[in-house]
Amino acid sequence: MLPVTARAHANIALIKYWGKVPGPGNLPAVGSLSLTLDCFYSQTTIQASEADRFILNSEVQSGASSRRVFEFLDPIRKPGERLEVVSKNCVPTASGLASSASGFAALSVAANAFFKLGLSPRGLSELARTGSGSAARSIFPGLARMHPEGYAEPVQAPSFDLNLLVVHCSDSKKHRDSRTAMNHTAETSPYYAAWVLTHPEDLTAALRALKENQFEALGQAMEYSTLKMHASMMAAKPGIWYFEPLSLSVLNCLRELKAEGVKAYFTMDAGPHVKILCQDQDVPVLLKRLNQIPGVIEILQARPGPGAMIL
Ligand code: PMV
Fold first, then answer.
1. Which one, of 73, 178, 181, lies nearest residue 130 by Cα?
2. Pairing of strands 53-56, 83-90
3. Of 36, 53, 97, 307, whose CB count within 10 A is highest?
4. What's the pLDDT band for 220 if we cut at 50, 70, 90?
């Protein structure tokens, strides 16, 4: 079989996914809504080999990351078939974005072509989900809605433009990964049930805002979903938080800017970086003010990006 190479872009959730349905299949406990970005992607090649090998950014991987790739491929390859998977994360220094979404979306698209699975976009999204919940959304360009049933689908773009500024707040890599953190939240946080129960109304509000071209309502729904997700994990036992002092300085700066009439909204994931949803007109003032915060490492400007593709 000929080698196949695919590329998929990272996505950031506007309405968050946090928590899984117990049992197999890696099904999310809640839906989500995301934006696939133009500036960060994973590129992955699959080819036949004499032994299983996973090479990431030119380094042969052993242990958990390699296991995760081959456990993902096991159900779709023939018994005894050995593969080499070579993956590269093209990530600007400032992004600080996790690569599991783009990585498993690229691997799914490459596997679909390599094994001639003939999957539909929905099937590809379901396959990607088995590797990483957020990967199901990176199959699609721009906005994507993830259903709790385990697949994502594209959402029509609004009439307003969308920018996402990624404020790089720390170089430290010592963060708890999202998979173990969300399971710990589900198992120990008294706020987790409230998070799951109230999640659909946030998703509905965001989808309505997109349909009615209400940028501010979209931003408000995003901030609300973000803070509820982080509150649920902070109330776990022991609590988990990803905020660094600098993350809070960025949030405080945004609060000031909002009082001055700038329309900018934050989100954060399983790391200290702050991502800011804004429109073209406000990018210059945001860059100016955020760059004045002592300690900000770099700010990256992302826009909606393409869906996953074969190269
Ligand atoms: O699928 P994972 O393990 O990358 O989890 C994603 C969790 C968040 O990034 C915090 C939220 C989200 O919906 O992407």
1. 73
2. parallel
3. 36
4. very high
Do 150 and 28 contact (CB within 8 A), yes or no? Answer: yes
* Secondary structure letter of residue 280 according to DSSP: G
Check pocket membership of 268 for ligand 1, CB cut-off 6 A: no
Q: Please, what is the end-to-end C-alpha distance for the chain in angstroms?
A: 16
Beta bridge partners of 37: 304
To test the pocket of ligand 1, the residue of 18, 137, 222, 240 to mutate (highest count of ligand atoms within 8 Å of its CB) is 18
The pick from 99, 177, 178 for probing ligand 1's pocket by mutation, whose C-beta has the most ligand atoms within 8 angstroms, reads 178
Given the CA of residue 229, which atom of ligand 1 is nearest to it?
A: 10
Among candidates 238, 246, 262, which has minimal Cα distance to 295? 246
Residue 213 burial by Cβ neighbours in a 10 Å radius (0-12, 13-18, 19+): exposed
Q: Which atom of ligand 1 is nearest to the CA of 17?
A: 13
Q: What pTM, to 2 d.p., does this model score?
A: 0.96
